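User: Could you check the structure of this?
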Amino acid sequence: MLFKLEKSLRELDITRNKLAVYAEVRPNTINDLANGDAKRIEIDTLEKILKSLNEISMTKGMPRTYNIEDILEYELTDDFINASKRRSIMSPDEFSKIKEILTAYGLHTTIKTLEMTDICEFLLIFGEYLMENGAKFGMKSDTGQLSEVNDTFLRLRHNLNLYGLVKYNEVEVKLTDKGIEFVQRLKDF
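Assistant: Sure, the predicted structure tokens are below.
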């Protein structure tokens, strides 16, 4: 938790004691919030403080409106951020097995230098494009290679769907979240 009341008091050029009197809140509560020592706070106390900060701001002719984030703010810790990045849709074993199967699957394309490749190499090379655009049935492109990438991805839809990597309808084929994670893991591999 980030305690930001002290900053708000400085902006308004008022003392902790003046806010305590104005808001009709115990001075110790204001001090604990300003020092970052508060363990808990009642909602009605927060409301009194916010109402008072805004009234003081208005009285001083300031165009500033104060919100709860001007008293305290929740900050995600690095541990939490790193843990959420590690969460994944597929296990390492599942990724390895799908990669093994798709690498063994020979793929013939009309894309120059990729006439003979495999599905994983195709996804590795064109994954970013496919994440953003997917493939559309009946797409005609001025750029020959994009049209060939589109057509190749359309041909692969059944194979990739077996592993939950794509979803498709009569209009388009898109990578699923699992498919996006698979492509990202291929890059990291």
